[in-house]
Design brief:
alpha+beta, 5-stranded mixed sheet, 21 helices, about 60% helix, disordered C terminus
Length: about 575
């Protein structure tokens, strides 16, 4: 009996190897990859997948081994994988296809009915577990586990349905262990092969995210000059050169601003927007995908553009235009293309908002703010953009909120038109910065703000944020467990005392003595700038006071004199 089991095991292993080779071949077929990767597939596509996986089940039947008037086979692999990947419809339908075939080639056979029933049930179970499978971290292990259960169910059904029972029992004793082992491992390996398709897509998505950031970096200098014909033409050329799309167009809400690539002979800058799909994007603020030339609805019968993704460009909540990426084959917009377009749309929207800052040139002329603005770390912008891109797919609402905070942060950095602002305005600016940093660092960063309600304090703009940033970069983030920053304001007779305290790693005594020196190469240039501005405005007695202890943290204190009544102004 044992020798026979080993012989069956060897033969089944060879058959399973054939199916794995088939899985490798299918993983390279474009249509199969496309169907597997699509999040939402049509009924017709589900039917196609059902026949594919049902066919794999039939191959498993024909490659089976005749044992005691029955077949030891690998039929379950096709329907199990089909159900896990395609969902209930594909699992049930592929099970019916493979099951009816098994019954039909041996009508009235010893196990034909039992095998048909078990095949349908196995496909159904796999389909019902597809959602749990898709969210599992180890898909191959999930398939292995379900494969074992499915084959055990098949053995039970054979014992219940097949007659005579003594023959059924003898058959199960012979085939149970080899089929459970080989078919569960085979299902796991098949899933491992198809899972490589998803991993490849993730790698492509990561690459596209990098491309989006590079594009955003290159287009920033143009969008800073405004959202107009000239600036968007440069942006569209950059996208066209750095991606594999066949055409790029950018519009405002009324007209085409630029069109680069195929179709530029009749999609011309200045033309009114005519296509319904673009108008829908503008009116709804939601992206659209055109899968065919008919979806694009171009009025030129010879237009070669056959699919497109159209995303809105926004200034705040207001749609100000669209970004359109085109391809020249039907149904060729992939999930990666969609993620790229959405990422670029969000980044461009941020850049458009930044371009609308009304007083940027006037503020840059002010020497105090100009010195501080020059120190805005470009790494913060790119880190923020990278963080936002990571949320675009998994939490769009979070990404939108972070974009608004980023916009608010830079707006306040560039748009102060007064020598002093109320402390509440400064705290708003700090909060915009902190929201982005919290998204990056999560629970490692905790901030407590204790500002009395109705406090009467006016201070120079952009004073608090550089100190908070310094506490995060050089104090809290250098601790594995993170830490807490406290911002505390207390009113005294003729001044307001503001304390920024952290429990970070602290500052060495030698560095603490020179931290406020005018060494512009020092990492603390932001805090040096704040100190100089306070001294220049209020006098030498009003510079920053810094105390620190290694391993316990750092405290930065400033005193802001109260304004005279006649100096009150609307800010």
């Amino acid at each position: 009996m044992i020798l026979l089991n080993l012989d069956i095991f060897t033969h089944l292993t060879n058959r399973v190897g054939t199916l794995i080779i088939l899985a490798l071949i299918l993983s390279k077929v474009k249509i199969f990859r496309k169907l597997v990767l699509k999040r939402k597939i049509t009924l017709f596509e589900k039917i196609i997948l059902s026949f594919v996986f049902g066919g794999i089940g039939i191959i498993g039947t024909y490659s089976g081994i005749v044992i005691n008037g029955a077949l030891a086979n690998s039929r379950v692999i096709g329907v199990l994988v089909g159900g896990l990947l395609g969902g209930p419809f594909v699992g049930i339908f592929s099970g019916i296809i493979a099951g009816i075939h098994r019954w039909g080639i041996d009508i009235g056979g010893f196990t034909s009915l039992a095998c048909a029933i078990s095949t349908i049930i196995e496909g159904t179970i796999a389909g019902l577990l597809s959602k749990r499978f898709s969210s599992s971290k180890s898909k191959w292990a999930f398939a292995l586990y379900i494969g074992v259960i499915a084959e055990m169910i098949q053995m039970i059904i054979i014992l219940i349905v097949a007659r005579p029972f003594t023959d059924a029992l003898l058959l199960v004793k012979v085939i149970a262990l080899p089929m459970i082992i080989t078919n569960s491992i085979g299902s796991s390996l098949f899933i491992g092969v198809t899972d490589s398709i998803f991993k490849e897509q993730d790698r492509n998505a990561a690459y596209q995210a990098q491309i989006a950031l590079r594009i955003a970096n290159k287009t920033l200098e143009y969008f800073k000059q405004g959202f107009n014909y000239e600036t968007v033409e440069h942006a569209a050329k950059i996208i066209y050169e750095m991606t594999d799309v066949k055409a790029v167009a950018i519009t405002n809400t009324k007209r085409i601003l630029t069109h680069i690539g195929i179709g530029d002979d009749h999609h011309k800058p200045g033309d009114e927007i005519k296509t319904k799909i673009t108008k829908d994007v503008i009116s709804t603020g939601e992206h659209r995908v055109a899968y065919t030339k008919e979806d694009i609805d171009c009025d030129d019968n010879y237009c070669k553009l056959k699919s497109a993704i159209i995303v809105p460009l926004k200034e705040g909540n207001k749609v100000v235009g669209t970004l359109k990426l085109y391809k020249t084959t039907n149904d060729s917009i992939t999930q990666v293309d969609l993620e790229l377009a959405l990422g670029l749309g969000s980044l461009f929207s941020t850049q458009i908002e930044l371009s609308k800052v009304e007083y940027q040139k006037q503020l840059l002329a002010k020497s105090e703010l100009k010195a501080l603005q020059a120190q805005i770390n470009p790494h913060f912008l790119f880190n923020a953009i990278n963080t936002i891109v990571s949320f675009v797919r998994i939490d769009p609402n979070k990404a939108r909120k972070l974009l608004l905070h980023l916009s608010d942060y830079f707006r306040k950095n560039l748009c102060f038109d007064t020598d002093e602002v109320h402390i509440s305005k400064e705290i708003e600016h700090v909060n915009s910065y902190l929201e982005i940093e919290r998204a990056r660092f999560g629970n490692k960063l905790n901030v407590e703000i204790c500002i009395p309600e109705g406090i009467d304090c006016y201070l120079p703009p952009l004073i608090l944020q550089p100190i908070v940033e310094n506490s995060i970069k050089h104090g809290i983030m250098n601790k594995i467990e993170g830490g807490i920053i406290k911002i505390i304001a207390t009113e005294e007779d003729d001044k307001t005392k503001i304390v920024i305290d952290d429990n970070g790693i602290g500052i060495e005594e030698g560095k603490l003595k020179t931290i406020l020196s005018k060494n512009k190469d020092d990492d603390s240039i932001g805090i040096i700038n704040v100190n100089e501005r306070l001294i220049n405005k209020y006098g030498n007695d009003y510079g920053l006071k810094i105390s620190s202890e290694i391993g316990k943290g750092t405290t930065v204190t400033m005193n802001i004199p109260k304004r005279n009544g006649e100096e009150e102004e609307d800010v």
